[in-house]
Amino acid sequence: MNWLNLPESLDHLTGSARELTPEAHSGLLVVLPHPDDESFAAGGTIARFADAGVPVLYLCGTYGDSGRRMGSPLFANRESLRDIREVELRDACAELGCSYRILGLRDKTVEFENPAEVAAPVSEVLAENRFSTVITFYPGYGVHPDHDALGRATQLAVSRVPEADRPLLLGVAVGNRDDLAELGEPDWYCDIRETAERKIGALKAHRSQTEFMFRQLEDPEVEPDEQTRMFRDEAYALERFYELSGPA
Hints:
CATH class: Alpha Beta
Largest sheet: 8 strands, mixed
Number of strands: 8
Mean pLDDT: 91
Number of helices: 9
CATH topology: Rossmann fold
CATH architecture: 3-Layer(aba) Sandwich
């Protein structure tokens, strides 16, 4: 894996953010809409928490069966993609060390659902378990409408938890630095250098979606585009999060 060049120090990447470590946490709930979102957005954090013995549950909104990627080279089709992506999710979560549930929302239509109805099963999961931290997408900065919609529903679900028991709610913002500049610096970061290869393994488990990306990363004859280059240089060293409050 000669393309992975992890920095010795994270000082130039963390800014004023506080370090998120598993020692102070009793449970981590990750609520994102698609298979592979967990690995891209928080795979290293999930693995680090799981390695420390913290229970981690990935609540996946959809089966991702309306995705446009079918493997590279092609091996899936519209009929088979749902089953393939569920198996990929199972294998990725096994790599990261977390459990998972699929809510069964319809892919690419979460934005059209009633937010209160989408929030309901998240609320049920929060009532079943004492999660100290919840990770979702930052509404309005998720790039994909499903990301924003499930992020808002998760905010709503967390806001319904009695204040004394309310978990820390963290949002993942997606986009380039210019897009995210108005948010300011992230509030938290997790050092994932020790779990970087687990994150890579989980992403590779989602092969219908990631084979093209890894071909860019691993082929010395291919020059990665700017987004892939930034992902390579930073996303395996740390994961950044913004602290969220109640529904916007």
